[in-house]
Design a protein that fits this description.
The structure is a single chain. The protein is an alpha/beta fold and 300 residues long. Helices cover 32% and strands 25% of the residues. It has one domain: Vaccinia Virus protein VP39 (Rossmann fold, 3-Layer(aba) Sandwich), CATH 3.40.50.150. The strands form 2 sheets. It has a 7-stranded mixed β-sheet with strand order 6-5-4-7-8-11-10. Strands 1-2-3-9 form a 4-stranded antiparallel β-sheet, with no helix packed on it. A hairpin with a 5-residue loop joins β2 and β3. α4 crosses α5 and α10 runs antiparallel to α11.
Length: 300
């Protein structure tokens, strides 16, 4: 059976880059965590000539589901305050469309920072998380979280007013089954909020294969055009599309660069600046080329 486009099913495909970057020997478990710095292409990438979608062609060697299930990320646990800044902006956007008390599902909720903030803002929350460690952490915090994949949770149809997938869909092998399940369990007129890297952003175009988006744990590579097309093909109307910004400490950025494939000269210059001026704890807000889209479920 020939490889098919993950978005439209076409078999008219082209290779994105002639050769992928080599695996530098980092642990697979650290490569499949939220704070991974494993930048670079580890799977062959294909581009659909029909719709423009880019996606990974898996080699079948990695048990990706198992890698997510067994992963843990202590670095991420220290970032609740910084990551919460972006989450507050999302919650503010959602509250403009949905009242307090609305049922919200966060798919790929990790250690629960987002659903914890949404709960404090008046939403009725639930999460789904692939990492057993992260899901158990959430439950110890008093948050309702299912450990596994969304289809395994067997949610009742039309049971949520809002479904969020923040930096999730780029990790999925089967995006068409995923969006079908999202549509099934979302109420008519409900909101789907999705965040993912935009490979056609300014930084994506400038950095090319060295963009942070290209990494072993990312399997789907959207542009604004293909993400909008993906949602519209599956019964959603676009409400809002914007650049997604993250807040982080410069010390964290420095630690990421120290383990990445980027220029060592750039790393040493950046390290000298940050440490020389004692800027490790300085928090900055910036976009790395991610896109945030709010869409509404349409009923036909």
């Amino acid at each position: 059976m020939k490889q098919q486009c993950s978005l439209c099913g076409s078999i008219d495909l082209a290779t994105v880059f002639p050769l992928p970057l080599k695996n530098l020997g980092r642990s697979k478990y650290t490569a499949f965590t939220p704070t991974s710095s494993d930048f670079g292409i580890f799977y062959k990438l294909a581009r659909c000539r029909s719709c423009g979608m880019q996606f990974a062609v898996l080699d079948g060697k990695d048990d990706i589901r198992g890698l997510y299930r067994d992963s843990s990320d202590t670095v991420y646990l220290a970032q609740e305050q910084d990551r919460g800044i972006a989450y507050k902006r999302i919650i503010s956007e959602l509250k403009a469309f949905m009242p307090a008390g609305s049922r919200l599902l966060d798919i790929g909720c990790s250690y629960g920072f987002f659903i914890k903030a949404a709960k404090a803002s008046g939403f009725s929350v639930y999460g789904v998380e692939a990492s057993s460690h992260a899901a158990e952490y959430c439950r110890k915090q008093g948050l309702g979280v299912f450990s596994g994949e969304i289809r395994q949770a067997e949610m009742p149809p039309e049971s949520f007013d809002i479904i969020c997938a923040i930096e999730v869909i780029e990790h999925l092998e089967d995006i068409r089954s995923f969006i079908s399940e999202v549509y099934r369990i979302l109420k008519p007129g409900g909101i789907f909020y999705v965040v993912t890297p935009n490979i056609r952003s300014f930084s994506g175009r400038v950095l090319g294969r060295h963009s942070w988006a290209y990494r072993r744990m990312h399997l789907q590579y959207f542009s604004r055009k293909t993400l909008h097309s993906f949602l519209k093909r599956n019964g959603f109307a676009i409400i809002k599309s914007s650049v997604y910004k993250k807040s982080f400490r410069l010390g964290y950025a420095l630690s990421q660069l120290s383990r990445s494939n980027y220029s060592r000269l750039f790393y040493y210059l950046f390290r000298g600046l940050v440490r020389g001026l004692r800027l490790d704890n300085l928090r900055v807000t910036a976009s790395f080329g991610d896109i945030a889209v709010m869409a509404k479920k349409q009923v036909y």
